[in-house]
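Weekly puzzle thread! Below is a chain. First person to post its structure in token form gets bragging rights.
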Amino acid sequence: MLFENDLLRLSVPGRSGYPVYDVDVISPELPCGVAWLATALLALGVPLWQPWGIDDSTSWERETASRWRYRFAGSGWSRLIPMLVDGHRFRLRPWPVPRFTHAWAGLLPRAPRTILFVRDPRDALYSEWQREQRKNAQRVADSFSGFLRLPFRHLPVDYATYAQLFWRCWLIAGAERPCLILRFEDCKRDPHRALTRAVRFLGLRVSARARAAACHAARHEHAAAADQALSAAGIGPRMLGDGTADGWRTHFTPAMSAAMGSNFDPVCDAFGYARCVTNVSPADEPLVDPAVLARAIAGEQGPAASIEAALRRVGRGADRR
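Winning reply:
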């Protein structure tokens, strides 16, 4: 399995009988719990091709028109999607065909529909800080505020700027087509209701019993057990946290909230979260050159112009109310 950076290949599922993606499932490259939705849908027979930009073409064997067998010994995917273990067989539907992706708005051709899978930005960033500490504590800032200012991957922005710009771009883009917002917190509190909203948006007719079974398959305890087993076998460090919602209410200090700033206000307002800080004027937009950031996101052959246009709309405050 390799990360697929060919944008043309990422634009289509690459499987016979699956010509196009018909829904984008968007989440940032931060711990947001979107694997819960991927697991639940896979349990209902919804295919999961090239998840999050990974070329998995060698990991699936087609046995009949609708039956597939997963082949990947020691698959690290099981710590996110517990059913993805070597030898597991699936009966997959011809549609819908979701594309689970961390792509920025403007990077890939849009599917007709969009699901934005979101998590309170405090929890997403705090969880990422904790995960990075588990992986390599010596290279991670000791303080949460220091972590927020670290460079995000290869991009010329820090973690805080990445998170708020990613979501603000998708807030604007998501309003242009049919869009469903699913919150991690709602999926934890009432998974059956959250999954029902998702399958209705996708146009699936699924029994309550099947939805209940899918919710059970997607329980955090299954992924946590796989994560522990893989780590014990020497296949990567432990990745998953405790899988709870609203952890920031226990861990956050006033200083940590202040470090988030007010640029997350449009995100918090749109997704129904409390603002990170209150009684402050909106902060200036981050000092980011949209052209430079767009080129870094797109790479050598990507659509930098469309990404830059999305970033400039955020710079004009198009998502602020």
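Puzzle host: Confirmed. Bonus trivia for everyone else. Residues 121-136 form the longest helix (16 residues).
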